[in-house]
């Protein structure tokens, strides 16, 4: 057990790194250990590498993977391209100025070669310039981006996804990642549909405005009869009318289309608007007919027949009686000052005096 990683959040069977109680993946948990976070920062996402790098291994502070890549880039940058040897064609053009060649030939070279050879100094300069430019090495910082000022306690990678560099996912992690992607996709689709609805309404508004303006302008221009038009205008008017009714349906096809539209509108309204359910009626049946009044909340009886509910404790019988016999069956709310219904309540005392008759 002592040879394995000492990671506290779960059991890790990876071997320990040198000089630490954790493996190379969890060695950053040891803040006092000889490792720190890799200084490489991605140029695309801007996130820092989460692997561990030895503090005294290299000056760049990269992990083993990025240190190997940096060394490879340095080797490529230090390579010098060997210039192409173009001395052969240049020497052939310079043979014109060789006196030994004229003596061997016994005659002077033609004038055309002299004219062409006058352009050779520029070629020599071009060759010299190209050979010097090929030897300029590529700087490492042009192809590599690092951060030497960051250390193991940096908070750059605290918000990084812990599953980003995972090679194997559990079923729960896969389901969670898929669910988050679907929720994000659903929100994007909803936003897109809202945008399309806005564009559709805006275009319809512009179309109706343009149509109204066209009717206002051209309504008086186009006559109701064809008698005042010449042959060319009649032909144009006939073409315009045919174009307007080209997409319209006629006869039985128009009737079927209108019925189809009505069914579609009814189906869409039934899904969008839920019809309110009618409130339940009282359960009392009088003379073979059921009471048509609505029930009191949390009961099966209406206010008029609430006294038939044996479980209610809010109403009582009217206390009006004649000869000790209760003759009124109206309900009265309990906890009130009066115990009789409205019909049997006593009249309030007289507050004014009637004028006396003389």
TrEMBL record:
Domain KANL2-like probable zinc-finger stretches: 5-67, 288-345
Subcellular location: Mitochondrion; Nucleus
Biased composition (Acidic residues): 149-160
Gene Ontology annotations of biological process type: chromatin organization
One GO term describing the cellular component: nucleus
Start and end residues of each stretch annotated as Disordered: 123-163
InterPro entries: NSL2 (IPR026316), Znf_KANL2-like (IPR025927)
Keywords attached to this entry: Chromatin regulator, Isopeptide bond, Mitochondrion, Nucleus, Phosphoprotein, Ubl conjugation
Pfam families: zf-C3HC3H_KANSL2 (PF13891)
PANTHER family given in the database record: KAT8 REGULATORY NSL COMPLEX SUBUNIT 2 (PTHR13453:SF1)
Quaternary data: Component of the NSL complex at least composed of KAT8/MOF, KANSL1, KANSL2, KANSL3, MCRS1, PHF20, OGT1/OGT, WDR5 and HCFC1.
Function noted in UniProt: Non-catalytic component of the NSL histone acetyltransferase complex, a multiprotein complex that mediates histone H4 acetylation at 'Lys-5'- and 'Lys-8' (H4K5ac and H4K8ac) at transcription start sites and promotes transcription initiation. Required for NSL complex stability and for transcription of intraciliary transport genes in both ciliated and non-ciliated cells by regulating histone H4 acetylation at 'Lys-5'- and 'Lys-12' (H4K5ac and H4K12ac). This is necessary for cilium assembly in ciliated cells and for organization of the microtubule cytoskeleton in non-ciliated cells.
Protein name per UniProt: KAT8 regulatory NSL complex subunit 2
